[in-house]
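fyi for ur records
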Amino acid sequence: MSISPILTAIAICAAVILFLGLLAYNGLIKMRNAVRSGWSDIDVQLTRRHDLVPNLVESVRGYMDHEREILEAVTLARSQAVSASRAALPTRALAEIALTGAVKNLFAVAERYPALQASQQFLLLQEQLTSTENRIAFARQHYNECVRRYNTSLAEFPRNLLAGAMGFTVAALFSADAADRAVNNIH
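which gave:
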């Protein structure tokens, strides 16, 4: 009994479609994992910054007695950023941007205090925070690029058919735009 050429062609087409589907699925899995890994890199740096801020506040407290509002603003912004660490991305971005602004404001005011500028502990913490901010910016750029590739892949035909059926969803960018959208949704 011989297999008909039509059945052979159908089997070959089905095998090719299955193979291409598996390639597309595995590609989506790799990209989704890259997005998750990219987010993990950001999270590590944000946690590092959260850990450095209390040390910074303590190191300047004795020098900046008249700047209580600034110290309280930094402490509050850090507390909100830590609390938002489990929140949705736009909310977390907003809290982290507020913390960045509060720390930058503290550094700007610290320039008025020569004794503080001469403090080795302050200078070390300032350098560590600046380095951490640079790492956050790099990690955010990497994450956003992974998200862009992943989201583009989700929208391309025929992956978009497979992605929807397999439960892949669009990932959010981590940017000031996300924070702006969160602010606009609040108001």
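Residues 39 and 131 are 18 Å apart (CA to CA). thats all i got for now
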